[in-house]
Specification:
mainly alpha, single chain
């Protein structure tokens, strides 16, 4: 038999890791939706849509960076940018 035993599970650390993974997933999904909207504006839009697509792509990266450090509500900055992107895509591409 081995002289060593496996350590007990560190449940608190496991919960922190799982919570961090969920927060990262939320921010990532919302940011990827916004990236798709911005790419749509950049490829199929006119001059204004290309300008707004570029600005909103940069805003998406900033909001995702802020959201990763915001904790459980980190998806909210990216969701606000996604809402603005969707509305501007409808207005500039219609």
């Amino acid at each position: 038999m081995s002289d060593q035993t496996s350590p007990a599970m560190d449940y608190a650390e496991h919960e922190r890791t799982y919570t961090g993974f969920l927060n990262f997933s939320k921010v990532g999904v919302v940011a990827m939706i916004n990236v798709m909207i911005c790419l749509l504006m950049l490829t199929m839009g006119s001059g204004a849509a290309v300008f707004f697509g570029t600005v909103l792509m940069i805003a998406t990266l900033v909001a995702a960076g802020v959201g990763l450090f915001a904790g459980a509500n980190g998806w909210i900055p990216s969701a606000v940018i996604t809402l603005i992107s969707g509305l501007l895509a409808i207005v500039t591409m219609a």
